[in-house]
């Protein structure tokens, strides 16, 4: 759809299939950033007086977008900052469950601390593997990506909601970085205790901004240790010892977090249901073509649900061949990762498939 592509000049030069690595910056976000820095240039301290108001608006926008009360939303610069701060607030040792070969920023952060760690395999039986690991290990917390960065395997939202009902004492910590912005998501109804997301990918908000969503019950289970003057500054953080303030110890960047607010407004204008439908069309078309060409691993082929991220069989020669046609992808693992967002089209899928067939000879 033309309305999906409007405001992304880079699409005039490239077939951009690389949102899983870096989302595009929309013109509307860029315009906000230009205006913000001009105000900073000529107003300086006067702009600072309005920082609290803007950050409150950002927090409320995030809460509204994902259905989470604003006083349970923390603004963080990225996933890793938020996740490590959360882990430092957990009593140790604890039993942790991870997914084998999940995103390094999850697994490395847990493995580097004094936790007793077990793993579930990522394959076509992912949900079953997790359920069996829960039954065997009874973990204190489960940290995982909703969508796998390597191959796009996507966990069922209904599955971990049901799992939480069966294991209410386990803390569920989800990375939404490869998920948020691809479909409608209701945090309050999800069963998650914590969702953490960097916003530079599918939310198209640029770098330096992210957020954490908390279930109210988590506050008695985690004791964050970070604290600073910023912990008590602004609406929702006035009370000493408040929970979200311990994830925001210093000054927050109004340029970057303001960019997040504008990006969320743009997605709302597009319509999450329309975005979800567009991605479903693209993933179904591309998955069928990749499968026909023998480019997908069995674990992906056999699953009913999938994201719009794929890792196809291919080496550096294929990667460079695609790049020579201005098709932007990533090398990940043993293959080439391809990711479609709402601004991509079925014509671009056809063009990609044509190039893959041409390369295969």
TrEMBL record:
Instruction: Please list the coiled coil stretches.
Output: 272-299
Q: Can you tell me where the transmembrane regions are?
A: none
Top-level division of the source organism's lineage: Bacteria
The record, for InterPro entries, names:
Aminotrans_V_dom, PyrdxlP-dep_Trfase, PyrdxlP-dep_Trfase_major, PyrdxlP-dep_Trfase_small
Molecular function via GO: lyase activity
The question of whether Phosphoprotein is a record keyword is answered with: no
Q: Which residues form the Aminotransferase class V domain?
A: 16-351
Which UniProt keyword terms apply here?
Answer: Coiled coil, Lyase, Pyridoxal phosphate
* Name by which UniProt lists this protein: Selenocysteine lyase/Cysteine desulfurase
Name the source organism: Salegentibacter flavus
């Amino acid at each position: 759809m033309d309305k999906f592509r409007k405001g992304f000049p880079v699409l005039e030069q490239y077939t951009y299939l690389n949102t899983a690595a870096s989302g595009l910056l929309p013109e509307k976000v860029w315009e906000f950033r230009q205006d913000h820095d001009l105000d900073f240039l000529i107003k300086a301290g006067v702009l600072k007086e309005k920082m609290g108001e803007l950050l409150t608006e950002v927090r409320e926008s995030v809460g509204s977008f994902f259905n989470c009360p604003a006083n349970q939303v923390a603004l963080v610069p990225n996933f890793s900052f938020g996740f490590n701060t959360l882990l430092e607030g957990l009593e140790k040792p604890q039993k942790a469950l991870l997914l084998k070969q999940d995103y390094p920023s999850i697994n490395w952060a847990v493995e580097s601390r004094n936790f007793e760690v077990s793993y579930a395999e990522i394959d076509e039986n992912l949900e079953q593997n997790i359920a069996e690991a829960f039954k065997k290990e009874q973990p204190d917390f489960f940290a995982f990506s909703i969508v796998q960065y390597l191959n796009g395997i996507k966990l069922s939202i209904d599955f971990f909601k049901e799992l939480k009902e069966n294991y209410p004492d386990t803390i569920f910590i989800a990375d939404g970085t490869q998920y948020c912005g691809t479909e409608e998501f209701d945090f309050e109804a999800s069963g998650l205790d914590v969702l953490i997301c960097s916003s530079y990918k599918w939310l198209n908000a640029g770098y330096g901004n992210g957020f954490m969503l908390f279930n109210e019950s988590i506050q008695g289970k985690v004791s964050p240790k970070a604290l600073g003057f910023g912990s008590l500054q602004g609406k929702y953080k006035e009370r000493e010892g408040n929970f979200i303030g311990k994830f925001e110890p210093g000054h927050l960047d109004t340029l970057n977090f303001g960019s997040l607010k504008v990006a969320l407004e743009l997605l709302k204008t597009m319509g999450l249901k329309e975005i979800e439908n567009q991605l479903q069309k693209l993933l179904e078309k591309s998955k069928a073509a990749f499968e026909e060409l023998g480019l997908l691993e069995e674990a992906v082929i056999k699953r009913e649900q999938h994201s719009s991220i794929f890792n196809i069989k291919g080496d550096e020669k294929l990667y460079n061949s695609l790049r020579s046609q201005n098709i932007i992808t990533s090398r990940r693992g043993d293959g080439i990762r391809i990711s479609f967002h709402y601004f991509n089209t079925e014509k671009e899928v056809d063009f990609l498939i044509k190039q893959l067939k041409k390369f295969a000879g």
